[in-house]
## 1
Amino acid sequence: MDQKILVGGQAVIEGVMMRVPGAYATAVRKPDGSVETVRHEFQSATEKIPLLRRPVLRGMVALFESLKIGLQTLQFSADVAIRAEEEAQGKTPQKENKLISVLTMIFALALGFFLFGFLPLFITTELLSIEKKALLFNLVAGMWRIVFFLVYLWLISLMKDIQRLFQYHGAEHKTVYTFESGKELTVANTRDYQTFHPRCGTSFIFIVLLASILMYALIDTVIIAIVGNITLPLRLVFHLLLLPLVAGAGYEVLKLTARHQDSWLGSSLAAPGLWLQRITTKSPTDDQLELAIIALKTAFGESYDQYVGREFIAEAVE
């Protein structure tokens, strides 16, 4: 019987981050062709606090931890790129500017809130008089949210730097597939696998977008029942505050699709996310595959040998 294990990751600037039980590591290629790696020990809060293993709660924790690790690894890859550029120009590498990093993160969060939080609700409120029809309102707003998400993905996919990022995303998926299949982690073996993975973060985001329609409809129904009315500002506040709850519910749906991916229901739920990965993953080069393999082996460290040759089933999302 296949054993369960959590192995996943994400693409970063000219590199890949891989996360395994107890640790995560990032490998980044410098302009001169050399590779810089960093490894961190990590224990999820769900392993320390039994209560957090409950359905939905575990999804909320996973989302927070994934965002934290993701931002840290992206910052590391950006620092490597900036430092390499300064060294190539003969400059003394400067210390990381925390203020710029914080401002960049604030801008990204504000843009995300505007596109996927405020704008769908504003357009639905202004164009239609269905504020008190909770399900219909959130169905329309949810459709706008999905349209904005698809357009956003398509537009950024046209950028050269993002295309390279998507290649590293494909390399990460191929490497995870190779590991889960029990094959030796070599570039030759890794080439054989597809770039689409059912537990990808892209699939998670799309499932959350779908789950938000029903979840926010329930939330709005409760608000209307208590207050008697609902306004755009009130909707924005409650939808934003309860986003972790919606994400936690989406996490459970994604786990369900991963567990039953061979069934009609599982394949149907997974299909939109896999389709989206035709945008967010690209076929990687051998150098990119090599980097993903280095990241995964670095993450495992000395324990890697005990996993070689064994087949695994992932038990959670990436």
## 2
Amino acid sequence: MPRLLPIYIRWLWKPGFPETEDELRQVWFMNQGLSPSSFADYCPELLKTAADFKYLKWPYKVRRHVKGRHVVDLGCGRGLHGLGYLLMGARSYTGLDPIVDLDLDAFKDTRIARVNNMKPIGWTPRKISERVKRLKYLKGEIAELPETAKWDVLVMHQVTEHLMEIEAVFEHFPRILKPGGKLVFRHPNYYSWGGHHMLPRFLRDIRPEDPEQRRYMDWAHLVYDPNWPDTILKEQNRIRLHELRKVVEKDFVIEEWNPAVSSEEEGGGRLTPEILARHPEFTREELLTQSVIVVARLKEAASR
């Protein structure tokens, strides 16, 4: 154990998160301990794949909320965040998604753009669940979870904007959380420069000659168009930040509400007085908020 300490301390103080096989091994055993279950669940191949596919950044960011806790991940998709949560010290991880194929070897490589980024890794969600006993993938809806299913922390990473009946989904959270349980999520703001999820998402995507881009660019997507593609109309709820806050506060006490301002590359520098004047219902702050990270605690009266 003493030999592990120097690398662990360097990792805690340096920006970023563990990436090399040596760092991953050190951090795994420092956070998971030296128990038989820790050794049994340690899989360097899967941890390195999660690191290579850039699935450790978000668990690292929220590590103090998941360490030592049982975590359920709503809308886990075909991702590897679960390995990151365990690496950060979670006691167990359950990923829930209605469309995940438990026997398909295809995982999202987040280093690649939105299209054609699914890659085989030699594992399926079912095989990962069998190999790492404290990591489970479940296919289904939150409403289908049994009454006895309880977790300490519910996490969502870029999921809330896709919940078309978001209030109905949030109503299930008190049922699956233990008393005093936490809700931790990142919400991308539809009303940011690239929040429409179409092109251009970043300045590097801009093609001035493309008429399709002009439908969305420079906050043109603030004006509703019934002819928008399903990507907007059927896959994004377009909830505003104050509306989201109200949904959360129904059953939770917000402990952290951390907005991230759009960078130059994310269009933050393109907001002009003319655009603001055309949309007086929005504040400058709302249009420049790229995303918000929320940490909330379940109200005592909401526990079931």
## 3
Amino acid sequence: MELPDLRGREAILKVHAKKIKTADDVDFHTVARMAAGASGAELANIINEAALRAVRGGRTVVTEADLEESIEVVIAGYQKKNAVLSDQEKRVVAYHEIGHALVAAMQSHSAPVQKITIIPRTSGARGYTMQVETGDKYLMTREELENKIATYTGGRAAEEVAFGQITTGASNDIGQATKLARAMIARYGMSEDFDMVAMETVQNQYLGGDASLTCSPATQQEIDRKVVELVKAQHAKARKILTDNRDKLDELAGFLYEKETITGEEFMEILTGGEQR
């Protein structure tokens, strides 16, 4: 079965929410947008986690904050309360996450930033940046995909710009950027040299979507070269964005370092020069 779309996610959430009490501030449409890509089982788990969070807080009513936190639990795991980052690690993670958010915000057609945090999670994530589309997207242009790759590289780029060195924190970003770049070239026909020739096929798309190349070894080498070129170009673009906006990078990273978690509204207020503190 295909994953539910925005309307389907909202309907599923409302069905499962009938068994709990929800506060007046709960907007299931917003929650459904934040849960993009979630399966029916994961949506049910989001409701259950929200109810548990309310109980742990001594409340009988589930709030919007409970639901938003439960989405993060499903996505990235529980907060690791006993995880202690060194001061330098915390500062690096703050720059890394702001790097993602700032690159996204300075490009057109990027999903708005919803939340940024540097609180470690049980999934192993030291922090993450949540972007939320205003609706479901079924088609993406080459520019949008390139911007997405640039956003993936934004964390590493921020480390380079701010500290002149790199860490292991970008391992997941590297995988995501490489996977997307390869799909653009080998599956989506977004390479001028290969035009509309499929070089990759996807099997069992509803069971993980394993991809395999269907071309000669020489062509595979050419695909590899083009993947590297594409990711390097977007990485360079991300570095330039952050270098050109170094003052905002420093200000936002310092603010996130102090607060550990900030909202998209707080991020945009600082970015656009609004009074935040």
## 4
Amino acid sequence: MAKKQYAFYPGCSSQKGASASNYITSFGVMCEKLDIQLNEIPDWNCCGASIGYGEGGELPRMVLNARNLAIAEKDLPGQDIVSGCPACWLGLREAVDRLHEHDRLKTETNEALKEVNLTYKGGSKARHMTEVLIEDIGYAGIKAPVVKPLDGLKVAGYVGCQANRPYGIAGESFENPLYLDKMIEAVGAEAVPYEQKAACCGGALAFSEPEKAQAQIRQIVEAAYDNAADLIVTPCPLCQANVEIYQAEINKKHGTKLNMPVLYYSQLITVAYGGSVKEAGLNGQVIRAAKLDKIAGG
């Protein structure tokens, strides 16, 4: 079967040694089993993420993302641009939409891109990896390669905010998106009811206003415990990092005993497809998912 090919934008947090490197590790087995080939965009640059919405203005943010789009158009023509990070996807998707709608902004963006001998033509489509799985593979397709059904594993599907607004997945509710629950169920696990699935983890407030961010994180984790979840899964590197890492600090400040594993959906899928602890990147977790490690053979 011919592989489905996509221009892949990894994003900064997924680089070797970065906070989400285990996310990309788990993509390997998952994509191989689904006949997906991710072709990394050469010489890509940072999308600007949250800081891109600061005082630098709209044009610099557009140029940062348009450069990646233009390289993909030139070197990987005809391939949709796919990212695993909602912040990166948001930046790319916004640039596609804004530059399509506003000729002057597109002209100014291309004036800047002339400095690096690039032109953004506007033929790109920016997608999140979950869109590819749902729309191009389908839930039955996700289920098909499962060799280790995750029976008995209870999972809280935490979509977060940037993967949900302003774009989200076509046809899904912003208040109660169900696609992550369906992906969890496709690999044999139980998606528990979870009222915090579209809540914000606090994002960059974890640095500027830690008390506020940690209050939100505590709610996210405690809701998972309230619904008897064994672990939380998310499609967002920032959500994963915040919700996992700050549990220890919350425990220290408030005398709680939070110890909830927080993983990526791709790690769950990789284990169900027969991937090892290492192949799923489970050995990179701060809080180990003991039940999933056992299924993976770790």
